Amino acid sequence: MTMIRTALVIAAIAWPSLASAQDAAATKEIRAVERQWNEARVKADVATLDRVLDDGWTVTHGDGTINTKAEYLADLKSGARQFSADVKEDELTVRIYGDTAVASGISDSKVTYKGKPSGGPLRFTRVYVRRNGSWVMIVSHSTRRQ
């Protein structure tokens, strides 16, 4: 009985640090996917974006318009949506909830959409899920900021 109690005490002590280490690793992975996301948009790297975005992904842009994954990738591929500079991201926070992660922060980008200025300073929230060992973005939402 003493061995069982000892094992339970050790498990209770170790569990929070194991969960914390897993959350730290997941946070690092999400930050890496965020970098891939931003770099791929600037380069119009549709193959990387196809891998990073879930098939059911949607984005709500700062002006309130919505795109599906297929629409967004088609716009990048055709040149209808063009990034003219790197996307700047700041104040990125990542919260992990098991196999779900929420990333939020501020960004600034220089984008044209069908020849008209778009992008600019935004506050964003993105939700990721872990599938087959990889994180994929399932939704992104942006709000214009002054």
Describe this structure in words.
This protein is α+β, with helices and mostly antiparallel strands. The protein has a single domain, classed as Nuclear Transport Factor 2, Chain: A. Helix content is 40%, strand content 45%. It has three helices and seven strands; from the N terminus they run ααββαβββββ. Strands 1, 2, 3, 4, 5, 6 and 7 form a seven-stranded mixed beta sheet that branches. Strand 1 and strand 2 form a beta hairpin.
Please name the defining characteristics of this protein.
single chain; alpha+beta; Nuclear Transport Factor 2, Chain: A; 3 helices; 7 strands; 40% helix; 45% strand; elongated
Q: Any idea what the shape is?
A: elongated
The end-to-end span amounts to 63 Å
Structural class: alpha+beta
Question: What's the overall average pLDDT, rounded?
Answer: 90
Biggest sheet, open or closed, and with what strands and sense? 7 strands, mixed
Number of domains: 1
**What is the total tally of β strands?**
7
The CATH architecture category equals Roll
User: N-to-C SSE series?
Assistant: HHEEHEEEEE
> Which band does the percent of strand residues land in?
35-45%
* Helix fraction bin: 40-55%
Low confidence ranges: none
Q: CATH class, anyone?
A: Alpha Beta
Instruction: Kindly report the CATH topology.
Output: Nuclear Transport Factor 2, Chain: A
Number of helices: 3
Rg over alpha carbons: 19 Å
